[in-house]
């Protein structure tokens, strides 16, 4: 009788360890098998050399001119659809790249990966974010291209840094592109996977037009950022696949079954 009273009085609460274990079990159930993950990852293993050459040519051209005639034409065409609804929509697309959320959102996503037991994914995402951000800052300083001028196009704010390549576009392509890759490769087909793919893929796809509409960048700034961000994305996918079967075979979720000496994970 006493035991029964004590049992009924005990709080029915899950400990943090229980909650983490349940979350990991949920994600484990959603994870695609290793062969399917390897097949999907192989799709991302082309294009690095093409991206590098294209970016090099564009950079050489950009250093010779403040903007191209096509830049002006593209910006004016996009800004011709100027209305309050478009203003709000394009600002929402760029929102995750503005301070302070440009740092807060990636940190939260990385912490979520850690909580779910995806330790290598969290580390790879962190490295991707750092390298993309640092390389963008260095490229801007080296190339020092001016931002679009307000006497040429509509400029919605004060932008203090240089213009080429676009920081928003490069970070979205590198970091959120990597999150898209993880979602595509690791999760089984489901409405949750589809929603995440739309969210990450849509952000990467639309941010370029958003930066042009807001007058923050020229179209060539955006193109350069997609090229450089895409190249870094592919490089970190290769790093991710190289490192996982070597160092993270026994993580709680999305573990690999290949031998540590192989890079096919």
UniProtKB/TrEMBL annotation:
This protein's name: Phosphatase PAP2 family protein
Q: Which UniProt keywords apply?
A: Membrane, Transmembrane, Transmembrane helix
Task: Please list the residue ranges that the record marks as compositionally biased, kind Polar residues.
Answer: 11-27
InterPro entries associated with the record: PAP2/HPO, PAP2/HPO_sf
Where do the Phosphatidic acid phosphatase type 2/haloperoxidase domain residues begin and end?
Answer: 122-237
**What parts of the sequence cross the membrane?**
42-62, 92-116, 123-143, 169-187, 194-216, 222-240
> Which stretches does the entry tag as region Disordered?
1-34
Which is a Pfam family this sequence falls into? PAP2
């Amino acid at each position: 009788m006493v035991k029964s009273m004590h049992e009924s009085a005990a709080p029915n609460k899950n400990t943090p360890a229980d909650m983490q274990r349940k979350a990991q079990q949920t994600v484990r159930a959603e994870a695609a098998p290793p062969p399917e993950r390897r097949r999907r990852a192989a799709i991302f293993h082309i294009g690095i050399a093409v991206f590098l050459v294209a970016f090099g040519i564009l950079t050489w051209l950009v250093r010779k001119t403040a903007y191209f005639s096509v830049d002006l034409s593209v910006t004016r065409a996009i800004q011709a659809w100027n209305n309050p609804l478009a203003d709000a929509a394009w600002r929402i697309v760029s929102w995750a790249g503005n301070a302070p959320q440009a740092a807060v959102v990636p940190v939260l996503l990385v912490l979520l990966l850690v909580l779910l037991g995806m330790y290598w994914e969290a580390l790879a995402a962190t490295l991707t974010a750092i390298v993309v951000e640092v390389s963008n800052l260095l490229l801007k300083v080296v190339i020092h291209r001016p931002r679009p001028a307000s006497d040429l196009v509509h400029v919605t704010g004060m932008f203090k840094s240089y213009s080429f390549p676009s920081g928003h576009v490069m970070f979205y392509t590198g970091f959120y592109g990597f999150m898209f890759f993880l979602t595509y490769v690791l999760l089984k087909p489901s409405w949750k996977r589809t929603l995440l793919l739309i969210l990450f893929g849509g952000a990467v796809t639309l941010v370029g037009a958003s930066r042009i509409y807001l007058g923050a960048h020229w179209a060539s700034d955006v193109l350069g950022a997609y090229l450089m961000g895409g190249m870094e994305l592919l490089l970190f996918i290769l790093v991710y696949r190289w490192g996982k079967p070597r160092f993270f075979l026994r993580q709680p979720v999305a573990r690999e079954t290949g031998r540590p000496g192989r890079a096919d994970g």
